[in-house]
Structures are given as structure tokens and as C-alpha cells.
Amino acid sequence: MLSSILAQVPWQSPTIDYHAIAPEIVLAGGICLIILVDLFVSESRKWITATLTGFVMLAALVPVLTLAVSDADVRTMFDGRYVVDEFALTLKALFLVAGYVVVLLSQNHVEEGDYYQGEYYTLLLTSVTGMVMMASSRDLVSIFVALEFLSIPAYMLAAWRKRDRKSNEAGVKYYLLGVFASAVMLYGMSLLYGVTGSTLLSEIGSKLTVEGQFGGVEALAITFVIIGFAFKVSAVPFHSWAPDTYEGAPTPVTAFLSVASKAAGFVALVTLIYVGFPQAKDVWQPFIWVMAAVTMTVGNLLALRQTNIVRMLAYSSISQGGFILMPLAVAGTGDAAGPALQAVIVYLLVYAAMNLGMFAVVIAASRTTRSGEISSFGGLFSYAPALGVLMTIFLASLAGIPPLGGWIAKFSAFRAVLEAGNGWAYAIAVIGAINSVVAFGYYGNIMREVWMKPAPNGETSAVRTPSSLVAALSITVAGTLLFGILPGTIMRFGDLVDLTGAFGG
Amino acid sequence: MLTAQFLLLGAVLFCIGVYGVLARKNAVMVLMSIELILNSVNLNLLAFSVRHGSVDGNTFALYIIAIAAAEVGVGLAMVLLIYRNRRTIALDDLSEMKG
């Protein structure tokens, strides 16, 4: 049976556009290089692996930039299964820069924590490679492979502190729920293949066109696939792993998971919705609507009662995820498709800058406070004014106060929702507005600790911030301020972004 | 055609797997249940592949088999890690963090 099918199609080796996959090639080469270097350098010089990893991330950015300025707008490979367009390039750049910042955050943390350095950076780089692949994937198989490529190293990173019971627990919870989610997602994908006869997203999109005529199988398939990625972006009710994993994992890994891994989940979700199921909006719109509303609300309410800052940031990132889902909930209505895509991209870019920055401040300040409790940050401004100001900037941005980046992100999300202009859209806009006020409650609480409270146990020696953390802080604060003060810079990214074949194609 | 029977078997396996993940407290049993789900996916893909007369499903199944092996490798390593630190692999005991 199989041989007769295979015999029908003569084998042709696919043409490969090496320029288009140059970022992936650089990263893959970098992974091999770091494994090799790690074998040959002595224990005291392991910091070389960190520096090299940073260089590899930046080196992979070079082909992304040359692709962005090259004449060919869209490069497709393997019959449209792997596409390099402006959407993919923007997100590849996001993943690489976020990865670079995480390397900067990790450097001192990993060195002082006596972790396995070479392996740590190898896994980090592998995960980033998976994300970069995810941005280009337009096929169920390549989406699945990219998802596992980015997840499996992340499971190991979460459990990195082998002897720490919390870190073990973080890893196992993340692993079990992540694998379960991807298994459910695969079942949905197998049904999708069954009803459409193809794994190519654009073909699935064209087969699922007859509006209002969905059988139960199609609806089930789409729901299962979306559930798979809802776990990845930790949308309520699939969020239960997030707080425990974030708290237990090493803090730089938490920063990585809450920014890069979450963004990768959104990228896959956006690709699926826009290319795969644009006509099936009756199935996914209500589902995402409910998820967005519940995610914002539950994330916020639980964040309000946290005393540990990392756990609070975990719930805050869940609720920010709800805001990113919000435009997607109306993406199929009227003219909202374009603005919704733009809003998601803009939000992801801004969110990456401000959340990584927030984690950088927490890591820098924890070097003195030695604690994750919010009360231990009391009086931070009095003995570390720079960190206090930076923390305020990031918190204000997360809360969405102008003129910072978070404001423009929230603005574009609300604008996209109002573009849809029906009752559902207004309802979710109201829920979003209430939630952004509630969110100020816990962000403001930390600000009050930092500015008004005295330092606990009188610890007022100046904080020495290592240069790698200073670099990470500068990159993220520059991003947060630039996107907020000059929103034109980032809205341009949003305008460029077009998913090939998504609109009217 | 036999496709329907294969799909039915796939659905049954999927349900057993989901039940196992939700109800079992032993980490290794949960891993095995996840494997059941993945195998139900493979069965589905192969059945659909025969039905559509294309090799896409077969290819997808091969990828799933390969990646599932890697996944279980990581999973078992983590279970071992937990066992070393706690002398138990009951998932209910994993409750260091709350809130």
C-alpha cells in the first residue's frame, strides 16, 4: 500500500533557499560549537560558553537583517511549508534579542549558582532555535516539530537545579502538563489531517471554507489544537503549571519562559488562526473570547494576593497573556483581522522588553535582598536609586501608563477590538479596561514598597550590579521607553507584518 | 472500509490515556498514559493516510514516534531526579509551592 503511494510521486530533492534559513543554520552551528567548546575549556573558564552563546544569537540576527532588507519579500520553501516573510522575520528578531537578554541575565546567576554552564547555554540556544523555526512554520508537522524543539530544552531548564526540590517540582509540573497538552494538540492535528487530507496550513484553510457547515469533528479538531497552545501561553484554565514552574525554576529561566516561550505559543496560535482556520471563526472566536476574559480576570485577582515577587510576576504574565489574546478573540469579525494581528505583534514586542526588564531588576536586586518576598524590596530606592527607578519604569509600563511601551501595546489591543465593533467586542473591551485598572493594584503595591517603605533589617549597602545585568537592563529599558515615546517605531513593525496568504488569500 | 474501526480504536485509546493522566498519581503511570494518547494519534494518522491515499500522515507519524522517544527520555530523567531527592514518585507529594 505504502510502496504504491510512494511510487506515484517521483522523488525530487526540494530546492533550498540557503539565505532564508541562514539564521537557523547559524544557530545550529552555534549549538555544535558550544558543545565542543564546553568539552575543551577548563572549569574556571566556562564563562566563555556564555559569551559565545551571546555572540551566536547576535550572529543569527545578521541574516535576519539582510533578509529584511533584501528584495524578495516572501521566500517559501517545501511547497509553502516553511515561509520567511515579514511576520516571521519580525518574530525571529524578537526571539533572538530576547534570547540574548536571557543570556545576559543568566551569566552571573549560573556562574555563582554552580550550575552546569555549557549544557545550560546549549539548551537555551536549542530552545531559541525552535522558536525561530516556529516563526516560519506553516505546516502542522513543522509546527509540531518546532514546538517540541523549543519545549523539551525548556523542561530541562526549569528543573535545572538538580538538588533543589522546588526546581524539580517546577520541571515535572511543566513537563507533564506540557507533554499532555501537546498530546491533545496532536490528536486535534490528526483529526484536522483527517478532515482536510493535508497538513499544509494554507490548504487546510482552503478546505475549511464553507461557513456555518462544520461537523463536530472539525470543531473538535480546532478546539484541541487551540487547547494545546493555550497551555503554552498559560491561558486560564490551562495555567496551573505556570506559577509553580515560574517560582521553582532559576529566575533567568523564568524570564525566558514567561517571555520567549509564551511569545512562541502566540506565534503558533496566530499562524494557525490566520492561515489555517480563517473561515472557521465560529469555532475559535467564542472559545478565545472566553479564554481571554477569564485569563485576564483570574490572573489579576490571583496576582493581587501574592507575597512572592516571582509568583506575582507569574500571575501578572498570565493576565498580560489575556490582553494579548483579547484582539484575537475578535480577529475574524469585520475589518478587525489586520489591526488584531498588528496588535498581537506590537504587544509581544513591548511585553518582551518590559517583562525581561522587570526580571532583570528582580535578579539584580535579589543579589542583595536574597529573598523573593515583595516586602524584602522595601526601601530599594533609598539604597539603590537606579534599580528603584528602573523597577518603577517597568512596573508602570506593565500597568500601561503613558508614555511607556506598555501603554502603546494596550492602546493597539483596544483599538483592534473596537475595530470589530460588535457587542462581543465592546464587552471584552470593558472587561479589559476594568482589568487594567485592577492590575495597577499589585504593580502599585510594589512601587509603594520600593519608594515609601524603609529597608527591612536595615540593609542599606549599595548594590553592585554586574556589567552583564547592566547591559540587559539598558537594552530592555531602551526598548520600553523608545516604544512608548516614539510609538511610530513599533507601529511600523505592525504595518509591515502580513501573514502570507492570510488576508483574502 | 476498516478506517472507522481504526479511528474508533484511536478514540478509545485517547480516552483511556486522558483518564490515566487525570486519575493516576504515579509519575510513571502518567507518562505511560501520555504514550497511549500519542499512539492513538499515530493510529489516527495512519488510518487517515490510507483513506486519503497520501503519505503525509505516515510522515507525521514517524516524526511523532521520534519526538515522543526524546520526550519520554527527558520525562524519565526527571522522574529519577524526583526519586533521588524524595524517595517517592507520587505526584500528590509535589506540593512545595502553593497559592
Automatic annotation (TrEMBL), chain B:
It is a multi-pass membrane protein. One of its GO terms (cellular component) is NADH dehydrogenase complex. InterPro entries: NADH_UbQ_OxRdtase_chain4L/K, NUOK/Mnh_C1-like. This is Unannotated protein. GO terms for biological process: ATP synthesis coupled electron transport. Signal peptide: none annotated. Keywords: Membrane, Transmembrane, Transmembrane helix, Transport. PANTHER family: NADH-UBIQUINONE OXIDOREDUCTASE CHAIN 4L (PTHR11434:SF16), NADH-UBIQUINONE OXIDOREDUCTASE SUBUNIT ND4L (PTHR11434). The chain crosses the membrane at residues 6-22, 29-48, 60-83. It holds the Pfam family Oxidored_q2. It is found in: Membrane. Its main location: membrane. Coiled coil: none annotated. Gene3D superfamilies: 1.10.287.3510.
